[in-house]
Structure formats: structure tokens, C-alpha cells
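Dear colleague,

Thank you for sharing your sequence with our group. We've completed the structure prediction you requested, and as agreed, I am returning the results in plain text so they can be pasted directly into your records. Please verify that the sequence below matches your submission; if there's any discrepancy, let me know and we will rerun it promptly.
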Amino acid sequence: MHRPLTIPDIVARRHAKWSHTPASAPGPEAATWRLSSRLATRFLKVARLGREPSLADERDRTRWAAGTRLAVPTVIEYGSADGLEWLLTEGLVGTAAVDASMRADPERLVPKLAAGLRRFHQTPTKECPFQFRLEEALAHVRRRVARGAVRAAEHLHPEHQHLTPAQAIAQLEREAPTSEDLVLCHGDYCPPNVLIVGDRVAGYVDLGEMGVADRWWDLAVATWSLTWNLGPGWDAAFLAAYGIAPDPNRLRFYRLLYDLAS
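Please find the predicted C-alpha cells below.
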């Protein structure tokens, strides 16, 4: 069992005069801190090497997305040493959609989140080097299961814990869609990863799983995350605001894929 992570010495020395506040509960595999000075805010992520997605993945995707019209963090520094890696980024303006002030009014929040995802999906994909189409996605989860990286009790949500990893793979292969509606997907579109200003989404963070994929990869995770953060019953409102009819089969498929993918 690893000890909770701490800020690497090299980063701590450079920010000795900054305040350091945990932005997420430091755990044994990954942690995030808010670094604040009188003039700026930065975010530092630290993770163990070998974790998926890696912070190098997030660095590369965030830098690519910065060349589009998407509002994403500016990467300041990436480094690795002693079995750890870290990613330092500039803070973005906005309030996280998971903040209590946002969750207090889900009837207003849900349409904002849907509109924000719709705009993300309108990003041109022609030059995007990152792919998570079905072929790549299924190969990825097969590799994870083969090397023992997925254990049902630890990694799968309650809806899927009746499946062994091998059974989960078999279900995915049986239920895989026969076509894809490809867009630029965030990969983990949920309230903690979305920043709000006024009546609209103003920023996107945690892009380690961004890539070209079926739009239902995002829609499945986004609607699932509403249950975790707001309670049940918001799927229909989100999909209606996004402008798409429900597809229970794709929702089920991509939620199971998400559970196995990282």
C-alpha cells in the first residue's frame, strides 16, 4: 500500500511563497493541489507512473486542445522522477460545476452542462491525433484486463460488479454498436471537470482521455455523472438540452466501457 502523495520537492521549492491547498483528497495513486499567490492560481497534479490515463497523456491532449477554440488550461510544466509524474497548469476562470452553489439549482445547471458538451463536440477533428474509436477502445480494455489491471470489486461501479472482467469484455463485444457518430470527446465529462461562468460553460479540465470517439462515449458518462453528483432523474433533461434522443443500448455499452478503460 502506497502512502498518500505529496508535492514533489522541485515544485515545492519553486512555489515556496505560494499557498498550497488540496483540490482533491490526496490518495495513494493521484492527487491535485491548488497553488495560489496574490496574482495567480495554478493547479498541480501528481500521479504514480503507470496510472491510466497518464499525466503525459493529459499534457499532450491539453496542449493540442489549446490550439482550438476550447477554453482549457495552459500547461506550464510536466516532469517525472522517482516513480512519480506531475503536471502544472494555469488556473481557469470559473466555478466548478460540482460546487455546492451550482448543485443547489440542478434545473439550471443541467442545460448549461449539456450546451457545454455540445460546443465541445463541435470542435473540428480533422487534425486530432488522439483516437478512441471502438477498435482502439476495445483493444485498450482487453489489454488492461489481460494484465490484471481491472478487478471488479475495486474498479467497477455497483451496476457492473456482478461481472468478472472477462464477462465484462464479453458483454462489450456482444453489445458493441455497429456504427459510430464520431466527434471530439472529452472522455470524462462530469461536473468536477467543467467550469461555469454566468449562464455557460467557460472551461474544460482533466483532458487525459480526450480523443475522437462516438459522441455517446461522452453522453453516457455525462448523464451517469449527474446521478453521482445531483441524484437520479436528470438523464432525460440533459439529453433533451443537448438535442438528442435517448439510446439506452449505447448508454449501457459506453458506461461499461468507461468502467474498464481507466
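Summary note from our side: Residues 9-90 form a domain with the Phosphorylase Kinase; domain 1 fold (CATH 3.30.200.20).

Kind regards,
the structure core
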